[in-house]
Amino acid sequence: MNQLSDILDQMTVILNALKDVMDAEQKQLSAGHINGSALQRITEEKSSLLATLDYLEQQRRAAQKVQNSANDDVASRWQIITEKTAQLRSLNQHNGWLLEGQIARNQQALEVLKPHQEPGLYGANGQTFTQNRGGKKISI
């Protein structure tokens, strides 16, 4: 097996792992309550896999320049990578829509809660707020 085939096989493995990570991301984003730390770990893992994929793509291009002949074995591997990449692009776009929906729901929840939040404890003059403004303040 030549170097280009090895690189393409490694790319396929990384794309499969990326699919698993993006499925986990979709599951988190679809849940009623998002676990922030789990989503952070998923994002870090996704970034790491994408960096590895970028490195392998650079290696593939260099190896392809060296091996200039089109090989059927290489062509079939490249077809698999192209199809997986298209699927992952679609999945990533769907996850982005889910994330936007979560952000919108969070914003709506904040807007509902905003009128009910307690007033600040201190006013602009540094004194505490009193509920009945007509009362007298007694100092000792």
Automatic annotation (TrEMBL):
Q: Which InterPro entries does the protein's record reference?
A: FlgN-like, FlgN-like_sf
Region named Disordered? 120-140
Q: Which sequence ranges are marked TM in the entry?
A: none
Keyword line: Bacterial flagellum biogenesis
Q: Which one Pfam family would you cite for this protein?
A: FlgN
Q: Which GO terms describe its biological process?
A: bacterial-type flagellum assembly
Q: What does this protein do?
A: Required for the efficient initiation of filament assembly.
What family, per the record? Belongs to the FlgN family.
Instruction: Provide the protein name.
Output: FlgN protein
Q: Which organism is it from?
A: Phytobacter massiliensis
